[in-house]
């Protein structure tokens, strides 16, 4: 009976009575067709509560309940609203592959919740409501992973990942702070609105620098992005130098004459590109050995731009690395 959908009130009452009499703690596969109030059902001692693959077809009310031991919500579906108002968690709690009703994503589902357990794990949850009602103890670890939000819900993503970051900072969980900060900034960037700024130019600048920060340094959390962009810049400028005219200290010219492209073999072009990639690299790093120099206005403009990019990227790399080291 416990797996039957659309139970009548009488059938649901029989199921609740059975749960109480047998003191069931493993609810795997149960389907509750009527409103579920945990205070009216579980009033006995237990070692662990397991709500795996449970479907709540009506409202699920966990308000004012004290979870004295560990509780697992695994692959649970809330067809209607779920309430945890004033609930207390003494043990660990895990939400894995939970599906909340999207209509209630902005409801105060976790209002004044007290979490005193060691671990709160939320992973792969759909339509996760705001968590800003949870009060954590100073020793509780909060893990928030693989929770995504769609358009119109980005604010909730920003709020929830900020909560996770703040709690990680409070307990010294530095391994996860970077991930939470990146997700918080990602959702924060998606809710930048023109109405939040006095002028359109300020809005465009904020949007531009947010995108620049995201894709160049990953908001300071992805330093390898800088290395990839550096290699890309060096490679692009090496290609452009082929048409700018570079001279060696032996007065040998390195470059391609566009009017005589048929005179160059693939091997000679590749050798030329390798030499110019070396020149581009020392220019980008501002070392400038002096064994090659540019000739012509176009070449000087390219060198100036690459030096500017090199200095900027070098300073950015240093700041990102130092930030991560002293965290």
TrEMBL record:
The chain crosses the membrane at residues 224-244, 301-322. InterPro entries: 5peptide_repeat, K_chnl_dom. It holds the Pfam family Pentapeptide_3. Keywords: Membrane, Transmembrane, Transmembrane helix. It comes from the Bacteria. This is Transporter. Residues 273-325 form the Potassium channel domain. The keyword Transferase does not apply. SUPFAM superfamilies: Voltage-gated potassium channels. The keyword Transmembrane applies.
């Amino acid at each position: 009976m416990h797996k039957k959908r659309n139970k009548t009130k009488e059938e649901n009452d029989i199921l609740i009575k059975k749960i109480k009499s047998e003191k069931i703690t493993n609810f795997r596969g149960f389907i509750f067709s009527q409103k579920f109030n945990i205070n009216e059902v579980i009033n006995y001692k237990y070692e662990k509560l397991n709500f795996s693959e449970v479907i709540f077809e009506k409202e699920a009310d966990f308000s004012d309940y004290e979870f004295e031991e560990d509780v697992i919500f695994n692959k649970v579906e809330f067809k209607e609203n779920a309430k945890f108002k004033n609930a207390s968690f003494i043990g660990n709690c895990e939400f894995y592959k939970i599906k909340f009703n999207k209509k209630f994503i902005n409801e105060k589902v976790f209002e004044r919740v007290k979490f005193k357990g060691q671990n709160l794990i939320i992973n792969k949850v759909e339509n996760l409501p705001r968590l800003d009602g949870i009060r954590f103890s100073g020793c509780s670890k909060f893990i928030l992973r693989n929770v995504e939000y769609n358009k119109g819900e980005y604010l909730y993503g920003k709020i929830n990942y900020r909560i996770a970051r703040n709690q990680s900072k409070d307990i010294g969980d530095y391994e996860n702070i970077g991930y939470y900060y990146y997700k918080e900034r990602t959702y924060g960037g998606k809710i930048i609105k023109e109405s939040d700024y006095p002028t359109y130019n300020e809005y465009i600048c904020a949007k531009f620098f947010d995108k620049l920060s995201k894709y160049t340094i990953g908001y300071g959390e992805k330093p390898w992005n800088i290395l990839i962009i550096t290699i890309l810049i060096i490679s692009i400028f090496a290609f452009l130098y082929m048409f700018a005219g570079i001279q060696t200290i032996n007065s040998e010219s390195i470059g391609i004459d566009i009017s005589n492209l048929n005179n160059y073999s693939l091997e000679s072009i590749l050798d030329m590109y390798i030499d110019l990639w070396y020149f581009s690299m020392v220019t980008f790093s501002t070392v400038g050995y002096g064994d090659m120099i540019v000739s012509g206005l176009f070449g000087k403009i390219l060198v100036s731009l690459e030096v500017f990019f090199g200095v900027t990227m070098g300073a950015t790399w240093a700041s990102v690395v130092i930030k991560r080291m002293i965290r």
